[in-house]
Amino acid sequence: MMRSPVPKGRVRVLNDASPQNRDYILYWMTSFRRAKSNFALDRAIELAKQMKRPLLVLEALRVGYEFANDRLHTFVLEGMHDNERAFQDSAVKYLPYVERKVGEGKGLMEALVKRACIVVGDDWPCFFVPKMQQALAARIDCRFEVVDSNGLYPMHDTPRVFTTAHSFRVHLQKVLPAHLMQFPTEHPLSRLELPTFDAPLPKQWKFGLDVAVADLPIDHSVPAVPIPGGSAAAEKRLAHFISKILPTYADSRNEPELDGTSALSPYLHFGHLSTHQVFTEVVGTEKWSVEKLGPSIGGAKEGWWQLSPHAEGYLDQLVTWRELSFNMTSHRPDDYRSLDELPDYARETIAKHAKDVRKVTYTLKQLEEGRTHDRLWNAAMGQLRETGWFHNYLRMLWGKKIYEWSKSAADALHAMEYLMGKYSIDGRDPISYSGYFWILGRYDRAWGPEREVFGTLRYMSSDNTAKKLDVKKYMDRFAPENGSLF
Ligand SMILES: Cc1cc2nc3c(=O)[nH]c(=O)nc-3n(C[C@H](O)[C@H](O)[C@H](O)COP(=O)(O)OP(=O)(O)OC[C@H]3O[C@@H](n4cnc5c(N)ncnc54)[C@H](O)[C@@H]3O)c2cc1C
Hints:
Radius of gyration: 23 Å
Number of domains: 3
CATH superfamily of the largest domain: HUPs
Number of strands: 6
Strand content: 5-15%
CATH topology of the largest domain: Rossmann fold
CATH architecture of the largest domain: 3-Layer(aba) Sandwich
Structural class: alpha/beta
Bound molecules: flavin-adenine dinucleotide
């Protein structure tokens, strides 16, 4: 694939301030936490070269955000250690910072900006990141650009918000080929030459990774899990996926008892791995090149890439479904969490059935502890609680049951946000919201027969799931104590 300058359509300027004639370019790495295949890093390097300035990369980890806990901190810190190694001996100065007390990092960005010509950030449209960046942009006196390195299709290439995966596929089949010619630099630090960083750093903050998670003021009730964080672990898992799982992905992806999917979502969420890297490896197994793309085929799921059904099935998740989530969150920053943004049929049927008697309801605590009457659901919750990740098919069932057992759609949404936000390494992501809102009817259609509580929302039952999939060992492992399925 051709390497090129950072495409203009991936860069947004957040304020009106001009570049300043000062000491360095500052890249504030918040979401694409990696030293390769990263358009934001490419842009920062591009500016450093143009302005003949050193490049400073700040990667920070706050303690005061919602859900900060041992699990998330450990995963992110492992990534920061990898980045420290990756930037070591390079022409770029890497500055890791971990907050020790809530609010301790306040003022750090402003202090670093005082000597910066331009600030570059990651354009990632979810959780607290956009608001934090906008707040900084309004306060500083130099230009602040954010760069989109989320996926193959730049989020702001179109103003359109897609309401179905099908319409998004139709669109992608027309416009994506041009973007497949523009990839981030695979190894941007290799043979890179920039002026040496020698500016003084503010003394008020203690930089470096010499911290113990146990000493930090975060939630210690959610322990670290064996999924290792960082780009090295991500690439190892990617290699395993390509050689062992991708060749049968279409058959294995719906089987919770198998290691049958990529399990790369935690790495994609924290930016330890890029979609471009994954895409390159997937298509590389079939000696694919962009010339092989078929003509637009009206949004059909398979056949456009001209790859095996396994690779096509995988790319439909990684590209169509994942980037559909980014389309929504980036274009509706204030509404993507709002029930008012559901399609008409979903809002109407939810309203019509709002007062239906729920046969059973559970408190958030009962859900969190996996103490429902439904053993398969408890197992799914057990996998999430214990491992920090769970299987897509069971996420669908998990969410549908939460809706069934909640007093309202708003309560169901709150429960999903809380449980995933707290326990899932890949939670708090644009995909989290397309998942929760899919449960409530987004990207879906009305289904009959109309039922109590669900109305015409798609219904799922644990009974059918247990008939369709092998889940016995799964339940024995993650919900050993409840005796029956219902
Ligand atoms: C209620 C609910 C909540 C969800 N919450 C999250 C979440 O917080 N974070 C998250 O990353 N995913 C979420 N998903 C989507 C999906 O379940 C996970 O992305 C997937 O299970 C991750 O496993 P994997 O990496 O092995 O996926 P693979 O099958 O290997 O798929 C490849 C990649 O495609 C993307 N992808 C897969 N399934 C979907 C999907 N349904 N929608 C959009 N993108 C998808 C992911 O980036 C994934 O890594 C949720 C789904 C539901 C139904």
